[in-house]
Amino acid sequence: FDSGGQPxxxxxxxxxxxxxxxxxxxxxGAMLLGALTLSGGELARALSLMALGTLLGxxxxxxxxxxxxxxxxxxxxxxxPAQWLAVTLLGMLSAASGWAxxxxxxxxxxxxTLWPVVLLIGAxxxxxxFGWLRLRSRAQLPADAAARxxxxxxxxxxxxxxxxxxxxxxxxxxxxxxxxxx
Length: 182
Hints:
Elements: H1 17-39, H2 43-70, H3 72-76, H4 80-104, H5 115-174, H6 176-181
Helix pairs in contact: 1-2, 2-4, 4-5
């Protein structure tokens, strides 16, 4: 179990730097692919689009991960369809906030008609990341079960040793030969 009381293999266990780095790398890869696709082979335009995509993608994915981390207990208690809905809505909200950062800061003169596209991209990336988190969680279940079994065995061993020694001590006075066998 982690510090929040969730099993360490929980789908919403996203509060680790390694996972954050993987999620950021995934979103940056998607932004790079989008920038290369939209640039039409023009390097300067691709770099410009990638810079805007990085600002949008980083702010969106980091906000999404912070929301998942802070809401993990509530989200973990929902059924699977509700989890998918909540995660994609949070992805849309995070993408919209990243887009708002671009719009408010007037970093780009992007048309306001792109809001639906930004929301769909946020939902799609959130759904892809959630699918990956579910696969990651399922892959960790056997390792978590083995770790719990080892923990239980470690707790039992000292009790077994203590009980064995107590039995031997009690038998020393009554039956020394049997105590020696124990």
